[in-house]
Model the fold of this input.
Amino acid sequence: MNGWSLSWRSFQYYWRSQLGVLLGAALSVMVLTGALLAGDSVNQTLVDQSLARVGRADFIFNSGERFVREQLAADLMTEAVVDTAPVMRLDASAAMPDGKRRANQVQAFGVDDRFWNLNGVDSAAMGDDDDPGVAINERLARTLGVDVGDAILLRVEKPSLLSRDAPLSTAGDSTAGYRLTVRAVLGDAQMGRFDLRANQIPPHNAFVPLHWLQSRVERPGRVNLILVKNHEDNSLGAADLNAALKKTWKLDDAELETVEVANQPWTELRGGRIFIDPPAASVAAELSPRAIGVLSYMANILEANGNRTPYSIVSAIGPLHSQGAAPEWVPSSTGAVNVNQWLADDLGLHSGDSLEMTYFVFGPMRNLVERARTFTVGEILSMSGPNLDRSLMPDFPGISNAENCRDWDPGFLINIEAIRDKDEDYWNQYKGAPKAIFALRAGQEMWSNRFGSLTAIRVPSDEFAPDQFAQRLRDALDPASLGFFFTPFRAPALSASRLAMDFGSLFIGLSFFLILAALILLGLLFVFSVEQRGRETGLLLAVGFSPRAVRRFYLREGVFFSLLGGVIGAAAAIVYTRVILWALSTVWSGAVASAQIHFHASSRALLTGVIGGVLMSLLAILFAVRKQASVPARELLNAGLDAGAGGTVSRMRRGWLTLAAAILSALGAVGMAFTADVHNAEQAAGVFFGVGSLLLISILACVRLLISSLERSSRLAARSIAALALSNAARRPGRSLAAVALLACGAFMVIAVGANRQNPLQNAEERESGTGGYALYADTALPLVYDLNTESGLNQFALTRDDVGTIRVTAMRRHDGDEASCLNLNRAQTPRLLGVDPEEFAFRGAFSFAGVMPDMPDDNPWRLLNQTFEDGAIPAIADQKSMMWAMGKSLGDTVEYIDGEGEPFKVRLVAALNNTVLQGSIVIAEEPFLRKYPFETGYHVLLIDAPFSRADELKILLNDYLSDVGIEAMTTRERLAAFTAVENTYLRIFLALGGLGLLLGTAGLAVIVLRNVLERRGELGLLRAVGFTRSEVRRMLLVEHAFLLAAGLAGGGLAGLAAALPSLRAMGAQAPVGELTFALAGLLAAGLFFVWLASRAAMRGEFYAALRNE
Amino acid sequence: MNETHPVILLDGVIKRYEDDPAARPVLNGLSLKAAPGETLSVVGPSGSGKTTLLNLIGALDRPSEGKVFVDGLDLAEQSDADLARLRNRRIGFVFQLHFLLPQLTVLENVLLPSLAAGTNSEQAENRAIRLLNRVGLQDRLHYRPANISGGERQRAAVVRALINEPAVLLADEPTGSLDRASADSLTELLLELNREEGVALVVVTHAENLAERMGRVLELRDGRLIGKEPVS
Done:
């Protein structure tokens, strides 16, 4: 026999009578393991969803609004020896033919067999180019309520060569609608979840035949996505692919071409996008020292001598290098203009005359700003010279191909009436040959914009033939500078899901009280069992076991209890996890944003849970038996069960220690509250629990002191039943304190939940609230390029000011990225970027801030967006919750993005918003936004200031009238409520799991009552014998335990209240005083009921017998 | 009585249970000597301090004043661990109640002190079996305490007390919970074992017939030994 076998024999003998201990151990293991398994399931589900989202593609080429040759995919396949699939992705909306059901944010994918083959799935039925149909994913089918065979209306964005933000681009007919039959409904395994963004909520997807879509949107042979599958051995990196791309791309991919200028000694670089992309222009200019630049534009009016010439093409020309020279017919001064004879005749111009030119420039939202500039006429150019070069005019959409001037559609309203017959004649004869020529610098001063400052570059044809020029330019130009590059697709997707919120830890946190209650109960029951075996302890001490050896003996016994509990708990954890997952898919679905979570049990989580649970149980047992065997053997042998009650060991010393613990914990709590960075999310939660726990410890230490004082005053106990009861509470201070601790934790939890429940809708109409004072929030699938603050902007959607009333729209640009709100469970690595005019919010005083980066002025944090950093990082603002939970960032941290030219850049979080509708995005100023993403068109996010009373009415109106841009308008209250629902669901989970803990807590109290009564049956019998009535004895028991109950509830309540004070004071938090009082009163009543029940049960039977036994 | 090597020596022992030095002591200036192999009984009315005396000799308690030596060791100079070791190796206890662990067999109960001592288990087991044979429990080795009689339990408790070959066997009302026949039988057994094992036997008892079987009878009254033992 050895120590282990001795403990094993004891365990074998006692386990049946100590089922409570076993249950406690099993419960802690079950809850801990269940939490880890639930976390595991969530995380594995996210990984599975990520894999379903990206399919088998390892890399992606996403040229966004630019469309490259479909052939590029084939060329890359040959060059890099990889599988590629070209895809056309367009924003779209879908609706039932009767319009009753609609999905606004739809992704339309033009794909062919290469897409399905690359992703290893059977080709989906979409019909073919002659008989087109559509395959939609399950979510879209659900949203529209359609199935195979039903028809839907698919309205897709009609891509423009040129951004609709660009001057002289057309904005009309930006979408096209098609009625298509649903041929297949695709599940996750059939790429139904295919998406470029990380989100566990599946997108609305529609797959149509690639060539059919290309032809319908008039971009034949063009795509904007190329998927690449890596080699089997994953030997390929994004750099290899980009190297292959550099070898295979062509200028045509960038809509650039080189041509010979007819009858002139020039080779010209021109583009289908009107303006030459600045990176291409810069490289092209470097190729020849004699290169000249051309910038052609449309003048609204040329006016001189009281005469006006409407709508004329004019050109600015000049050398691109100091050693170069402009043609002799170009003025050298920026204040001069050379005009052709036709214009001179029309306006009666002579050399030296003044000529005023008015022209439009495009402000934000296609707002036209008319500008004018006066020039001095230099030369009058003949109508037969090289100046009469119609190729100087780029391919202005809506103009170049027009038969006559009256058919022009230059992207702004033109006054047809102003066009004269002679203007038509000029157009018929000379087309776009410029009527006036300026120096290039003058032109660039007037018409440069983010899309470029040249419409053509010319190099001498004796230096470069068109093919040579194209070849040299292609070789010198990095395609990444045009936004053409591959990025890893699969790896970041997996990383986003693997870096997702750790649900295992979250559930452990949510189960904290339940686990604590189980452990306290386990400890209590184990101590009871050890106390019951007091004489056994005494004997072991008497025969020479040291107190430490005796504790080891009990601890080893505890090991067996814990291990068996671990085995039972592990089995129960499987069931428990399934129950949690069921709840997450039903009553708690808000916590996982309605994602369907599948059960997944990894051996790692199982082992961690079981080992952790067993260790925690052992710790509880260790803590519980730490004082066992400290009572002298003689006492234990004589008194058995009663030994150690009201122990007299170093009362004074213990008192001082307890007092020190109370003071130090309180000081620690205060220190933590004042020094913690409350703007750091994880810290904030930690601070709440840290401060709360320290206060709880402090209060419990005070309760311990109170119990000690009762112990000391027990000599006075005989004066009243209440005094006797209170002195009884001091009889087993440890036990009493455990009961108080159990209840205090419960009360703490109730307060914590109540205080942290947010009501962001409080003061929702205030500008500093989470709504910013805006009544509506809207997202559009297609860019909005009109200003809804103007009558003309409203008219574009058949709306008038009378329809919408007094509204003010704040529009924001959007660069799509990961949803960084609590609605996305994945880690948002590159959150959606919004570009806004900071003054809009600054002037308005919109929203409130939770914090500002240290050393930054905080008088109006919106203006921080205009700051610059030495390292080039762009200042950014995000919602505190997005920052903390979805991004895992703090103030001052940076987030890395890739700009439109493939260059990495950083945004630095300079301020944190306080629970706003902007959750999910990072906001930067519009200016750097456009600098980094010059090709992002229009506005996608709208905040609409309107009377809140009209919010619902306006929502319906906008969703109806702006459906062509795929708008999804919602009231800001709805949006905030959706975010808050997630948080409140967590609180509900916390409350539910905590409720189970409270149940254990009250069960613990009942066990203590039973135990106290059973231990003191003799004493109670004596009270009865000396004349106390049964009800008096019961009252004494009730008072004794009600004291513990009240101390626990008051202590926990106070600690919770103090810790929650910052939350209660925060904007939007509403102190639910009534609710909390009711909950605490309920707890008190339930506790009293259990005390009464337990004392009644324990007092059954005849006490005199117990007296005889004594 | 061996004058040079008393196995038990108490010198001017005072024991109070309150911290207050003015409180009335339970033992008041008590002195006592016992030689190896000697038998003595301590008698006296309830509250006279008999059990307290036994606890002091058994290293279960410390005196408030005075000295206690057991097997030549000054208990005041021993740490708690040393006292535990002393109890285990040099002292055996027999209580009024047997205090056998219900989860263990008779043999295992007997071996319990050897487990604390960490002695060779085979040797200890052989000795346990031999002693159990000696007290007539050879058929009860693997019985649980619940399945044997009260007298058998008390005999097992005696064997447990002797398993580590103690110098002193302390018995506190060993026959108190037994019927007359069992009590007589146990008395015989204690005396036989005292002789066979050479262990000093101190019995605290109310039972006159048991007390009178010991070599010396000491009477405790008001915390002092009266009459029958010469005080050194």
